[in-house]
Amino acid sequence: MASHQSVFKDETKLDINYVPRHLPHREKEYYLLMEFFNYLIQFPGKMSQRIIITGDVGTGKTALAQRFGTDITSEAKRQRINLHYVHVNCREYRGKFFLVMQHVLATFQPTFPKRGYSAEELLKVLLQILEEENAYLILTLDEFDAIIEHEGSETVYKLTRLQELRAIEQQRISLIFIMRDLKITEKIDASARSTMQHNVIKLEKYQKSQLIDILNERVTMAFAPLAVSEDVINLIADLGASESGNARFAIELLWRAGKYADAEKLESVTPECVRKAVSSIIPTARKSELASLRLHEKLFLLGIARFFKENKNAYATLSEIEQMYAVVCEEFGEQPHSHTQLWKYAQFLSALGILKTEVTATSTRGRATRLSLPAISAYELEKELSASMERR
Ligand SMILES: Nc1ncnc2c1ncn2[C@@H]1O[C@H](COP(=O)(O)OP(=O)(O)O)[C@@H](O)[C@H]1O
Ligand SMILES: [Mg+2]
Predict the structure, then answer these.
(1) By C-alpha distance, which of 254, 260, 262, 220 is closest to 236?
(2) Which atom of ligand 1 is nearest to the CA of 213?
(3) Atom of ligand 1 nearest to the CA of 25
(4) pLDDT in tens, 201-224
(5) Is residue 4 part of a domain?
(6) Which residues are registered as beta bridge partners of 372?
(7) Domain boundary at 281, 311, 336, which?
(8) In CATH, what number is assigned to the domain containing residue 221?
(9) Does the Cβ of 25 fall within 6 Å of ligand 1?
(10) pLDDT digit string (tens) for 305-349?
(11) Which segments within 249-375 are labelled E, that is strand?
(12) Does residue 260 belong to any structural domain of this protein?
């Protein structure tokens, strides 16, 4: 027997630290950043920038800044400008500005002694090095929330006034602050705040269709041809969209679903792989919720679980589920409830977050309800429901 071929072509493209060359749906923000720093490339030293990038988790803040940083340094190099881009995650340094500065300095002088200097002294040394090397720095302080929480206004002052630390004509350091929520800046006093908020780039949550584009690009880079169907991408994008437009969640799901496909030696990623991936990410504390459902809600849900266990489709119509439900009712010696009632069960289970229902246009009958089971493995669901019916 031939050995199993992985569904992946290059798994590293799904790594959390991988920054793609092109960020779909962040083109506008990317060009805005380039625009802000254009002057710096044209007239280095004449001015410095201060930018805030803000947006929810997984909206691409870190990726955008890093893409920009890499691109602007190579552009500067072409123009023979000695520009450095340094990206620090402040939370990794527990919001201690002093530790952040140590790290920044180490990127210029790895042997610089770690002890014996205050944050302010480190800043001065940094400026001195930049002077000596005739270099410029774009410093991105990612998760800057951590610094504000830990240190407050004074550090923000130090940073934004740093050009005044020395009597120099050349502006050497530009700053990009990344934070989830601008509200956090309310914790610092108004004058420190005003030194920060010059240009704010707000990244909105991704819509489902945008997540589809992002996922499609990653699928092409990371998976073997035909390993991931359109339906599966659709399902993952749905989940990412309901997880507040979070691209990180969507990409992690894609990766995990691929891992499940490989573990089961499948040729492609199935909707069931996605469901397993979800339930492995969100520990579904749903057992008591399932146990508390009424009998026909359980029978209906069991029909759904069986349908998705036996079918490779990501979506089912209500009538397809109705047929499965009828079989389940027969098995349990129950009289099936009406179509209208099933529709109500579907709405209820969808409100609980167990199912997803949506109305779609069909070519023949106008509109139909389609169902998907985005967050629970059909196999696990059947097992759990069967167990709870036996206990009855
Ligand atoms: N527009 C995009 N195109 C491609 N990948 C993206 C895009 N936005 C985010 N990602 C990816 O999603 C994940 C989360 O993005 P990240 O920049 O870490 O979000 P944030 O810093 O806002 O929490 C990363 O793997 C990143 O590469
Ligand atoms: Mg980030």
Answers:
(1) 254
(2) 3
(3) 1
(4) 999 999 999 999 999 999 999 999
(5) no
(6) 315, 356
(7) 281
(8) 1.10.8.60
(9) yes
(10) 999 999 888 999 999 999 999 999 999 999 999 999 999 999 888
(11) 315-317, 356-362, 366-372
(12) yes
Q: Is 223 helix (H, G, I), strand (E, B) or coil?
A: strand
Token couple for 192:
């420190």
Identify the nearest ligand to the CA of 17 by its number. Answer: 1
pLDDT one-digit tens code per residue, 344-375: 999 888 877 788 998 887 766 677 889 998 87
> Does residue 245 have its Cβ closer than 6 Å to ligand 1?
no
Range of the domain at 211: 207-281
Does some domain include residue 9? no
Q: How far apart are CA 314 and CA 270, in angstroms?
A: 8
Candidates 174, 176, 134, 199; CA nearest to 48 is: 174
Answer with the one of 245, 260, 281 that is the final residue of a domain.
Answer: 281
Q: Give Cα 291 to chain centroid, integer Å.
A: 33
Amino acid letter, 232: V
The tally of domains found in the chain comes to 3
Residues 6+ apart with CB under 8 A from 122: 98, 101, 102, 104, 105
Same domain, 216 and 229: yes
- pLDDT, tens digit, for every residue of 49-93? 899 999 988 999 999 999 999 999 999 999 999 999 999 999 888
Instruction: Please tell me if the CB atom of residue 219 comes closer than 6 angstroms to any atom of ligand 1.
Output: no
Determine the atom of ligand 1 nearest the C-alpha atom of 56.
22
Give, using CA atoms, the residue closest to atom 9 of ligand 1. 60
Q: How far apart are CA 108 and CA 103, in angstroms?
A: 9
Sign of CA dihedral 175, 125, 97, 160: negative
One domain for residues 43 and 190: yes
- pLDDT tens digits, residue range 269-303? 999 999 999 877 654 446 667 877 889 999 999 99
Query: Ligand 1, from 12, 207, 248: best to mutate by most atoms within 8 Å of Cβ?
Result: 248
pLDDT of amino acid 37: 92
| Residue found under tokens 């550090």 | 155
Measured in Å, residue 43 CA sits from the centre of ligand 1 at 31
